[in-house]
Every structure is written in structure tokens, then in C-alpha cells.
Specification:
Layout (H helix, E strand, L loop, with lengths): L10 E8 L5 H6 L7 E7 L6 E5 L2 E5 L1 H4 L2 E8 L4
Antiparallel strand pairs: 1-2, 1-5, 2-3, 3-4
């Protein structure tokens, strides 16, 4: 399973697992729960942080935080 940190912008994913860490409860409080659909919106010029749409709001994550989240890719949106 790929990690959220490796997903390209414009990709829709579903959360499959969150690694057991001190950040896990915080991520879950912010809506990153198993089964939740996320859309990677963009990455900063050097790749860190990334912006993710979580149920209609923008969540910014550092790459080390995003690496805790394993996902399944649902769809790659092609920008117009």
C-alpha cells in the first residue's frame, strides 16, 4: 500500500491504515480515519508540506506525518 506522502497532487485516495504513533489520535481528530476519502491538492515547491482535502476542508501535513497514512488510490484527476 502506498503512503500518502508519495501520492501526486490531483489524486483521490482512501485511508486504509494509520501507523501507531503519537500523532495517530491527532490525525483522527482532524478527520483522517480509516475509510475516509482524501484528495491530494498540491505539494509545496520542495514537496513538504502537502495540502489534502479532508471532507471539505484543507489539511496541511508534513511529509513525515503523511508517511504515517497508508492509502489505496481511487482516481487520478487530470487537471484541465
Amino acid at each position: 500500500m502506498p503512503k500518502l506522502s508519495s501520492i501526486l497532487p490531483g489524486t483521490i485516495v482512501v485511508v486504509r491504515e494509520i501507523s501507531d504513533s503519537g500523532l495517530r489520535p491527532k490525525l483522527m481528530e482532524m478527520g483522517v480515519i480509516i475509510g475516509q476519502q482524501l484528495t491530494v491538492l498540491f505539494k509545496a515547491p520542495f514537496g513538504d508540506p502537502i495540502a489534502v482535502d479532508v471532507n471539505g476542508y484543507l489539511l496541511s501535513l508534513r511529509l513525515d506525518e503523511a508517511a504515517l497514512i497508508q492509502v489505496d488510490v481511487i482516481e487520478k484527476i487530470i487537471p484541465v
